[in-house]
Amino acid sequence: MKVIKLLLLHLLFAPALLAQTPSASFTVGGDYDKFYPVIWLDDNWENNEPTILNIGRSNVHENSNWLGALIARFEFHMSNNGHRANYVDVSMRQSFANFIAGWRDASLQGRRYLIVWMKGGGITYHYSSSNLSITAPVVYDGTDGRVAYQEQNGPLHSYKTIVDSYVNTNGTTYDGDFRVNGRIGIGANPAGSDAALSVKGKVVASEIKVTDLGTIPDYVFDPSYQLMDLKEVEDFTKENRHLPGIPSEAEFKKEGMDLATMNAKLLQKVEELTLYTIQLNKRVAELERKNKRPRGKR
Length: 298
Hints:
Layout: H1 2-20, E1 23-28, E2 35-41, E3 51-57, E4 69-77, E5 87-95, E6 100-105, E7 113-119, E8 123-129, E9 138-139, E10 149-150, E11 156-157, E12 171-173, E13 184-186, E14 197-199, H2 230-240, H3 249-255, H4 259-291
Parallel strand pairs: 13-14
Antiparallel strand pairs: 1-8, 2-7, 2-9, 3-4, 3-8, 4-5, 5-12, 6-7, 10-11
């Protein structure tokens, strides 16, 4: 009987609880090619937990045919006058257009504000939140005289025309270090591999630094190092079609290439070439000395 009463109470109050969950909309006016500041208050700050804000427009035809769709999730906690532990993690998926150009923690002296720059041009957005009392956003698109947002003791924020570089326009942007206690596969299944990261496809980076280099071949310059005779090198390359100490084409295709090991081998060959060049230079100098004729008087 008690179980039945609890079930009835749940059925009675569940619709009311669901109805309290904020689900509303707002419109960003201005120009379609600009992203305007939209200000959100971190109402969940006093509850000692992050705020989760969902912003979306599922219907790609809302406001105009094929205008675009957006589903974005913001999880954030503002700094609030130096308390810190603040972060903004954003996950978004969108089509036909970019709707979010950036975000910023604009909190100071009790003001717990998150700025999100959103595409204008009369576009309607819908939002809901984990916080049942989240304050509606304030849009600075020129409507009602709100042209730019003045951050307290900070800069004046107006519209953007390009998406900030830190924004992942179709994925997740983490505000902080990202660590996985396991293996990661990007376009590849990491299972069965001893690599921490498995990637199928191109990797683009502005800098790659290898710290575990193994042995650096400066031993080539040691007086005791036995340099192969050039005739031996010639015979080896004729027979094997690759340099001594360097894997063959078949080995590369089968085993792949370890960049640290390969760079060390290439450095070794460069250093050996330097020694060969020094030897040849000495021979040339000796031949020039022997062939040099004293100048006689006519």
